[in-house]
Amino acid sequence: MNELGRLEDLPQDYRDALKAQNLVPLWPSLRAVLPPGKPRPNTRATAWSYQALRPLLMQAGQLTPIEKAERRVLVLANPGHGLDKMQASAAIYLGMQLLLPGEWAPSHRHTPNAVRMIVEGEGAYTTVDGEKCPMSRGDLILTPTGLWHEHGHDGSEPVVWLDVLDLPLVHYMEASYHVDGPRQTVHPGSGHRSHAHGGLLPTPVFERSRKAYPMLRYPWVEARAALQALAADQPTLDAVQLTYSNPATGGDAENILGFYALMLRPGQTLNLPARSPASVFHVIEGGAQVRIEEQVFDLAEADTCCAPGYTPITLVNASASAPAFVFIADESPLHRKLGVYETR
Ligand code: 1HN
Question: Ranges for the Cupin type-2 domain (predicted)?
């Protein structure tokens, strides 16, 4: 591959003439935007310890009342992107949100898609599109694009959850905005009960409006039981993994990011191939060692890490007796839709 000409090789008066016309020569920047063989990601393998961040989040609870924050969140920012960019990867935003007993986070809707993975505490709930979704550890709650959502807390202890949004991508697209709204009217029924039996879909006969997202809450008790059933049914299966899916379509739960629950058997080592999307690992139960090239993270319960795409990843459950349960978020739906998805 030959060396390309540099900007400095061009006479200053020529560069000035280009600039005056808002013109830029491609060749000095061509290798930077099309590096050879594989991308050069800004996303750095990074881990966030829950033990380290929890006291800082609780301190935020004392320093900043909810009315002054609207959403009281510490962003898990990847230093490779710059801390001010609020990016875990090119397309993934991560934040830890705290809601204290009695607090209210008012209703709004926005274009980025969100999910919440509940980390600790009982008694809080989020109302999404009029459906009241109680929050318990390990539950996954969707807030797909455009749906109203608000958070309340009737319990007695702090509640913390991990927010995962496609905000960096939607913001980059100049398509990110929000609308504030009044408190929602809660309607009866919950998608997780009407869709509780895989393979049996509610079939409206007198159809008025079919919801694009019929299931908004994925209780951890059910995801955990499904993982254990899969592990027992297929004792030689390497990746005991489930995809959080939209039961109406069978496709991904949301349009841009993908969400998965993974069980590592006691003592298991799982080698994941290099794939183009970046990914996030969050330990729901147990512990997991995550190896991303030279980086090794020993994740305890509630710890989170992110990995760039195009990198093989190894997950290890060091416990000889207990399974480990890991929540995964990645950019697969986006890569597939764009036609750039690869496994190497
Ligand atoms: C948001 O609306 C929530 O509703 C949390 O809880 C985090 C981060 C960026 C933009 C919107 C929420 C968010 C957010």
Answer: 96-164
